[in-house]
Amino acid sequence: MSTPRATKITPLSGFPEYLPEQRVVEQHFLDVIRSTFELHGFPSIETRSVEPVERLVGKGGDADKEIYGIHRLADAEGGSAGGGRESELGLHFDLTVPFARYVVENAGRLTFPFRRHQIQKVWRGERPQEGRYREFTQCDIDVVDTGELAPHFEAEMPLVMAEIFAKLPIPPMVIQVNNRMIPEGFYRGLGIEDVAGTLRIVDKLDKIGPDKVAALLVEAGRTAEQAQACLDLAAIRTPDTSFVERVRALGVEHPVLDEGLAALSAVIETGAAAAPGAMVADLKIARGLDYYTGTVYETQLIGYESWGSFCSGGRYDELASDGKNTYPGVGISIGLSRLLGLLLGKGLVGASRKSPSAVLVAVTDEGSRPASVAVATSLRARGIPCEVAPAAAKFGKQIRFAERRGIPYVWFPGASDDGGDQVKDIRSGDQVDAEAASWECPVEDLRPQVIALGE
Amino acid sequence: MSTPRATKITPLSGFPEYLPEQRVVEQHFLDVIRSTFELHGFPSIETRSVEPVERLVGKGGDADKEIYGIHRLADAEGGSAGGGRESELGLHFDLTVPFARYVVENAGRLTFPFRRHQIQKVWRGERPQEGRYREFTQCDIDVVDTGELAPHFEAEMPLVMAEIFAKLPIPPMVIQVNNRMIPEGFYRGLGIEDVAGTLRIVDKLDKIGPDKVAALLVEAGRTAEQAQACLDLAAIRTPDTSFVERVRALGVEHPVLDEGLAALSAVIETGAAAAPGAMVADLKIARGLDYYTGTVYETQLIGYESWGSFCSGGRYDELASDGKNTYPGVGISIGLSRLLGLLLGKGLVGASRKSPSAVLVAVTDEGSRPASVAVATSLRARGIPCEVAPAAAKFGKQIRFAERRGIPYVWFPGASDDGGDQVKDIRSGDQVDAEAASWECPVEDLRPQVIALGE
């Protein structure tokens, strides 16, 4: 083998890695997310990490400028590394585009309406910055149907997410909902023809503020009155359906606007009934990606609005098509890496220990290691995670081994006066007689606990 | 957005994807693997998917010829796509090399001996064939220490895997164990100097048979007698420590051979006591990767030996080093994708249903959808996975919706004579009165079951 290099190893910017105690937090989040998705009847699928580049390009708005292609090093040695070979492959930059491909590819073997969840890593070659990574984990749910998709699914998606947020040890989340038909109809009612261009400028509101948006709109050919009306619409945000009156008060009329207002009202009404406070109608939400056609979602962590959205999605009517059938869908996605980047970075959440072991079985001397292994086997048979001490060191050293890993109990085979075993809670120092076949581990000590911490 | 293409979508060779019912099987396997790793006190880590190419090259034997490099498409447009930019990155081809890097990078923040499990995808650009993929999932455990690693860990690793195999619905597995010091000492005792070259030829035994191996050995400069002795050693396979006598009977002596025989005896003795039948000493096992230095493991599924090893690993003393310290380790890895490729491909395992939902809540008419949603919310609050029917179709159609997904129960709000609810087991047709707040779902119906099927 090649000799190990002694060069200093440094992290790769944009490719975060966690220590074991941080990974405990991530796994807790993943477990809550998956189990809630399953409670709501979303089966899991995974798609391969790569797609032909031509399927990725043009689907992701800004994201497709940042696709990573892959190439076999063995090929690169022989000549051109970039293109020219069979079908060039790229790492997926989200889970929606591969899901749309999967649906079309497997349409004959799926049952519609088809719901699924998908939790995977995605890659984007953008400049790393706070909350933005080059490799990160997304947690998606989507429902697609053939031909038509019932509108009640648009209310269901954010409610699943609201249930997840309520179960996680995080500050409150608010899901902002809009319907693209509202700005579209409103702009048309104002006489604006370049709807997409106008939307793109208004979408910068949170980043650059209303004055600059107004200036950009005028620069792009809107009148000052049109620009002001666009800003007035974008300023509307209500926890209930009163947004309808406020839009009406702006005096703009268009059938597409009516349709959008009715659709958003239905979503907000269902949301307010099922999870009061979890959702608001927010008419400035547009979503950068081009494929959304109706309802759109973004989510803010209250107190951390500047971090942007942690959970986004929307309805798309034309993403998946095989030429004969189209598969309209609606989906929403948690940006788990971004959320954990904030929570772990600011110390807002932590784990009670970094080892899954609830018990360290001490070893009196190497000759009696099999007796310690037998204790561990007996505890595991009853679902108690444990490990055997690595060396028959002094008991004080074995206890420190447990302490450093946060393992709450140390088991001493044969430590009792009658030759039986004892177990010590190393937090309290209490040591009591115990049998491996019957000792009950307190349920709160069985697994690491993940808890909210003050900032 | 760009118009969806109507081109036919075909699978990418070497990048397998599962249907939801197959993914249920995969998730069951992943859950058993993870929970057993945790029962044995292995915390989880994940490493980023990429490493600098220079860290990958030279570490993986054959594998490093098949590394996938990644490149930003945005860069490719500007010129050279292959090399020349900062540090070129490649997708990892196993989890051991990135783990070794992680240990060195984080040594100051880890506690030694450090144990971890790691379940992730890896990539190799090799020619796809039966049981070989370009993207696949590995499930690893390793223990590393600073300076010295206690030998008892070499017995612990395969026992964790044996426990997993015993819990999975698969044919019996046998873990074959060897110690590289045995062939090394034996070859030296025979007067052979090129140990690595000899080992590489003997490693082809299963593929090309003893006659061709003997011919290759002679071609490489061994005498006919040396070649025969190498084959005699490789033919020894015993379920207990009787391999020692059989090696001794070959009459070769060397201190490294003695050391290897003692080390392997300790592993096999511990194994035979803890999990009779799970392990055999098999002196032909060598493992292709160059970094192993002591104990090595391979695993065969009985009846499917030609598929090769589903679970492999070994001890490595020099993989991780920061120049000052070395971190010897031992690890073992399940090739989950290869195992599932066989089991799913041959129909040896299956799931009882493809939906996580245990209950479909029927919808009488769209106006009463909120009542059906309330039933679902109540069931979920008690941990019963369920979904609400997508449309207020005729009940027969709603029942068929459940049937096609394998959902065992359909709930009918208000179906009872007294206006209460009823639930139907659609397998038996039994329909009984039930309340969402108290109905007990039989525990075997709560989640999809994964079971062995006859071939």
Description:
Chains A, B: Belongs to the class-II aminoacyl-tRNA synthetase family. Chains A, B: Its EC number is 6.1.1.21. Chains A, B: Residues 33-356 form the Aminoacyl-transfer RNA synthetases class-II family profile domain. The structure is a homodimer of 455-residue chains. Chain A is an alpha+beta fold. Among the domains of chain A are: 45-167 and 295-351, 2-Layer Sandwich (BirA Bifunctional Protein, domain 2), CATH 3.30.930; 359-452, Rossmann fold (3-Layer(aba) Sandwich), CATH 3.40.50. In chain A, 36% of the residues lie in helices and 21% in strands. Chain A has 15 helices and 18 strands. The first copy, chain A, has helices spanning 20-39, 53-56, 73-78, 96-106, 152-167, 181-189, 195-202, 205-219, 224-234, 243-248, 255-274, 336-345, 369-381, 395-405, 443-446; strands at 50-52, 68-72, 89-91, 114-123, 135-144, 173-179, 237-238, 279-282, 295-301, 311-321, 326-335, 349-351, 359-361, 386-388, 409-412, 421-425, 431-434, 450-452. In chain A, the strands form 4 sheets. In chain A, strands 4-5-11-10-9-6-8-7 form an 8-stranded mixed beta sheet. A 5-stranded mixed beta sheet of chain A has the order 14-13-15-16-17, sandwiched between helices. Chain A has a 3-stranded antiparallel beta sheet with strand order 1-3-2. The two termini of chain A are 48 Å apart. Residues 1-6 and 78-85 of chain A have low confidence and may be disordered.
